[in-house]
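User: Sequence recovery, please. Input:
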């Protein structure tokens, strides 16, 4: 069984391998699939901004390639002194594969800075049904 510490170590490794020559803002992300497998990704910038790829999107792509479809835990790591939560596009991407109560650990290389639920970060995702909106 993998632990949050395993996720943090993998996020550190992914962040170290990020390609961020324009922003100098490397990000690593790890998703734990319902199978228990960890998938990581890093941001990859491109001079044809915004044609780059976020770390969360890279991790989701690895998960899909690995045959999994449900996310049960998320780590996003940046070396920033402030909280680096997933961007709006990645919040929506994550919502395709994760429930509202899935924890999103926002981290720096030293560890977890804060934990949110995906529902806290994306309270009204695209595709929200009228019934679900009436409930919450």
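Assistant: Recovered sequence (136 residues):
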């Amino acid at each position: 069984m993998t632990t949050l510490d395993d996720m943090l170590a993998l996020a550190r490794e992914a962040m170290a391998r990020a390609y961020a020559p324009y922003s100098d803002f490397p990000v690593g992300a790890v998703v734990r699939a319902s199978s228990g497998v960890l998938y990581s990704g890093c941001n990859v910038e491109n001079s044809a901004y915004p044609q780059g790829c976020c770390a969360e999107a890279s991790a989701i792509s690895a998960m899909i390639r690995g045959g999994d479809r449900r996310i049960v835990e998320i780590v996003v790591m940046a070396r920033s002194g402030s909280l680096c939560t997933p961007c709006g596009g990645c919040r929506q991407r994550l919502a395709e594969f994760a429930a509202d109560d899935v924890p999103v650990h926002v981290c720096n290389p030293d560890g977890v800075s804060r934990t949110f639920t995906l529902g806290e970060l994306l309270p009204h995702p695209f595709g929200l049904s009228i019934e679900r909106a009436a409930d919450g």
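The longest strand covers residues 71-78.
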